[in-house]
Amino acid sequence: MNLQHLQSIQSIKHQQGAVLAISLILLLIVTIIGTTSMQTTTLQERMAGNANDRNQAFQMTESALRDAEKVIQTTSTIGPFLNASTTTGLYLPAAIGSEWWNNAVIWSGGSVTGTEPRSNYIIEKLPADTGRIGSLEAGTPEVSTGYFRVTARSTGQSGDTQVMLQTIYKQQ
């Protein structure tokens, strides 16, 4: 036998499975990378779902605001404005320093109105003395039958998302 052939036979006898160990380490690294990327993807899906839920609740709240403004536009005299025991969603001015919209009982007690089951609004007639003088146009007197605070509130699909919007509306 030649010397080269003997050296190759001896080197085969001395191998200890280094390729197997390296392959297992690489397989472990790939598994960790795959698991981490799956967790990241799951988190991103949750964030996208929450953003979508918030967007839907916001759109429903804006729609409820527009519905309430239509009620004010189409009714020559809004009223009678009642107290918190009503189910109309129309309220007299609250005492100075307090607002109906800021009362949690009103939102949970069913004394609001709205077109969607997860969206509702209240209309508060503001007191005549609200500090507003004249119109925005110079020299034009203000002609208004009243100011109203419209507050709309909606919840998202999950029920955890809540959006509340408010506007002041001037009836002419």
What's the gist of this structure?
Helix content is 42%, strand content 19%. It has three helices and five strands.
Written description of the protein model:
With 172 residues, the chain is an alpha+beta fold. It has one domain. Helix content is 42%, strand content 19%. The chain is built from three helices and five strands. The chain has helices spanning 3-13, 18-74, 104-108; strands spanning 90-91, 113-116, 119-125, 146-155, 162-171. Strands 1, 2, 3, 4 and 5 form a five-stranded mixed sheet that branches. Strand 2 and strand 3 (119-125) form a beta hairpin.
Please count the helical segments: 3
Number of domains: 1
Main beta sheet: 5 strands, mixed
Can you give the mean pLDDT?
Answer: 74
Shape descriptor reads rod-shaped
H/E series, N to C?
HHEHEEEE
Q: Could you give the count of β-strands?
A: 5
Helix fraction, binned, reads 40-55%
Strand content: 15-25%
Rg from Cα: 34 Å
| Separation of the first and last Cα atoms | 113 Å
Structural class, from helix and strand content? alpha+beta
| Low-confidence runs of at least 5 consecutive residues | 82-87
